[in-house]
DNA sequence: CTCTATTTTTTCGAGCCTCGAAAAAATACT
DNA sequence: AGTATTTTTTCGAGGCTCGAAAAAATAGAG
């Protein structure tokens, strides 16, 4: 802790700054980079010259858009797609998908596969994962031998070191150190990420204006998950991967949750809970294992048609989400929310009760100004988040082969 | 954002590192500082020589504890008490207290005063504050003309810039920009802090082993407040000063809270709520304005004596706190908790129900291992926290007169 | 009392890094 | 073709940290 700054760290960090500026801006000129980083032109010139020499950046000759200004035209710097590549693995319920992404962020190969995650034994599940990765790595059509990083995302709880899955709803298995397994198998550094966290990462890259420093991504799926960005950084718990929004308590002693406890938000707002309420099975009914997306859409359609138990089920979901968000907002103050997943497609049914509930909470003071976006399909987001996360790791590994310190914040609270 | 590191920032930061190492360690030798900061001996020698020359540090000639080792003895570096001083102001219900603290952290003057905050008009409240500060500043017994910073703490919500009180239970007044007022009056930089945050800051200095990177300070007083430290940094909300733990929703539509809403944790666990339940006044009864500490202690005594409504009231408080903590732990994972304030003295009555409740939540998985400390007196903690906060500001202002950047973290989520 | 071993602290030159100013490069306008 | 303008590179200056060596300060041994 509290480590000083060495002289050589300086260059490393400023290199990082330049790379990240290029990744963010697309094709910034040296002048633009100097402006955003606050470093001098000479420094940017020196660093980018190094980076180009090392094949990390390249000058984009694309002299399109004939310069309107006079003077020497700016020459854009771009990430060299061939500098490296990363591999993403997304493991979700009964579905496994991998993609290879080049250093500039383009997908250059992918493969998807259905499998029965709920019943699969440990060896087989791990085997499927390593096999699909191996097929991509050994694909003769692709000569990307330089996969620099693997990011694997899974629904459920991962440890705070991003090494292992601790628990997941997609399998009864627990404690699988996927990151270590993949690293051991392929000798490529790997991380194990939480799916909702990756959604949040992706949203930030997709819409940096809307999702900048503070926002919330909530997965409305069979379970309820959350990815939380606070002060520009992904918020993860102290031990595990992060905010188990779905297991905040909505009603003490209330409806039976998939986790075995009672009254969690998820026990009212998860697909199985909506299903259970819509079918009027009672709050003590054992959660069903899975409800297909199609079934959920049918349910939503019926709820829109008539004021029956289906509509009431969505109302209850909205209420639980609203009070949950209200409590969350009491802690972190209101922030933009993105609702993701199949039930986000039914957000019209959820929103009224949600807003009504949130207005009754401390966090709901500005209830009207809280905005919700919806995105029914979580998979592309998760994969995109994984890709960006892996690429950012590469950005840092390439420029900073040494120890990366937590930005010498050092200063203690006070 | 994403600002690069300049060459001269380097020295500034390493100076900061040295100062903070000295503040933390007490009287470390140059060698010890070199070890903890990771900088070379030469660098530490140069920096500390500068700091001594500027009167910020001083060599502690205190050759006490005759060195047992041979070789040149280490010479301890200490903060020079006369380098600066800070002033703390703590404004709580019907009570105003100020203290002057030297650069080494010793209280060198103080003054306290009772006043009727609940009915006082705006001008008068502000006037009392400025007057008491002025008396300390003009005290002829004290020749500390170099007050470098004022930190003012208040119960309630402050803005995220630490400039103004937005709302407080101790007065019906709102939006008082205390920091600006004091700065304008005395020309000394000032900040407006939340009391519970200061408690957390103080706990971290008092018991760094127990309260290090992640912990929670909860104020059990008339209202329920929280100071939260995550990953070594004080957690504050995006807009306001921070976690309104007391206004997380315990029971939707439940007991009437002082804030006007229903079902907040505070509506079950605040002094007025315990009082209301103990007197069996019903959950809709308007919260009383204040319950004296003595009354609360009497209540607790009665609850210990017999199993009546008083005991039940504490049980309900424990339950609300337990479920609230459970939801909080779902978000941030379990962490050590310090219970502060008069009702922390009745924690024996609260704890059983609290633990029972927390065990029913997702965060309570390791319910047994969560530890609670109690500290019945919040005032000294708040003042201490203010002092440390102000001193830390001075540490930074003295060494880094320029722009202080948020430790060039720059790197975006991903 | 002197000498030696040991530990801390300072000194000094080397190597980097960033910066500002000036030069070079590349284009639009006249 | 020449000038104005903007971007990028070059170059020397000034700072900072580091490692090695020197200096300082003490305990223990004889």
UniProtKB/TrEMBL annotation, chains A, B:
Alphabetized, the UniProt keywords read: Kinase, Transferase
**Organism's domain of life?**
Bacteria
Q: Does Kinase show up as a keyword for this record? A: yes
Alphabetically, the GO molecular function entries are: kinase activity
Task: State if Kinase is listed as a keyword.
Answer: yes
Entry's family note: Belongs to the ROK (NagC/XylR) family.
PANTHER family with a match to the protein in the record:
GLUCOKINASE (PTHR18964:SF173), ROK (REPRESSOR, ORF, KINASE) FAMILY (PTHR18964)
- Protein's UniProt name: Sugar kinase
Q: Which organism is it from?
A: Mesorhizobium sanjuanii
């Amino acid at each position: 802790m509290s480590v000083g700054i060495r002289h050589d760290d300086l260059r490393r960090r400023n290199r990082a700054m330049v790379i990240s500026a290029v990744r963010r801006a697309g094709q910034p000129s040296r002048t633009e980079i100097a402006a955003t980083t606050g470093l001098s032109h000479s420094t940017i010139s020196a660093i980018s010259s190094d980076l180009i020499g090392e094949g990390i950046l390249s000058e984009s000759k694309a002299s399109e858009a004939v310069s309107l200004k006079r003077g020497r035209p700016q020459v854009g710097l771009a990430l060299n797609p061939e500098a490296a590549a990363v591999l993403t693995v997304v493991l979700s319920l009964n579905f496994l998908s991998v993609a290879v992404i080049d250093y500039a962020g383009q997908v250059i190969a992918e493969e998807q596969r259905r499998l029965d995650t709920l019943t699969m034994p440990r060896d087989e599940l791990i085997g499927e994962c390593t096999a699909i990765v191996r097929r991509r790595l050994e694909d003769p059509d692709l000569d990307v031998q330089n996969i620099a990083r693997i990011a694997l995302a899974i629904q459920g709880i991962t440890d705070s070191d991003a090494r292992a899955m601790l628990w997941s709803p997609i399998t009864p298995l627990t404690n699988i150190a996927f990151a270590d397994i993949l690293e051991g198998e392929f000798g490529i550094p790997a991380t194990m990420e939480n799916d909702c966290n990756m959604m949040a990462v992706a949203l930030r890259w997709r819409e940096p204006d809307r999702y900048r420093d503070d926002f919330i991504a909530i997965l409305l799926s069979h379970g309820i998950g959350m990815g939380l960005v606070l002060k520009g950084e992904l918020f993860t718990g102290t031990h595990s991967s992060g905010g188990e929004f779905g297991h905040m308590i909505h009603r003490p002693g209330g409806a039976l949750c998939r986790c075995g406890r009672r009254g969690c938000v998820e026990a009212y707002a998860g697909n199985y809970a909506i299903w259970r309420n819509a079918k009027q099975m009672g709050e003590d009914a054992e959660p069903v294992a899975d409800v297909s997306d199609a079934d959920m859409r049918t349910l939503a359609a019926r709820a829109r048609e008539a004021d029956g138990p289906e509509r009431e089920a969505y109302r209850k979901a909205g209420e639980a989400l609203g009070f949950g968000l209200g409590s969350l907002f009491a802690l972190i103050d209101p922030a933009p929310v993105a609702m993701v997943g199949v039930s986000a497609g039914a957000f019209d049914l959820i929103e009224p009760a949600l807003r009504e509930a949130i207005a009754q909470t401390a966090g709901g003071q500005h209830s009207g100004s809280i905005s919700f976006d919806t995105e029914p399909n979580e998979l592309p987001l998760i994969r995109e988040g994984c890709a960006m996360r892996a690429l950012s790791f590469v950005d840092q590994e390439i420029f900073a082969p040494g120890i990366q310190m937590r930005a010498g914040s050092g200063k203690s609270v006070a």
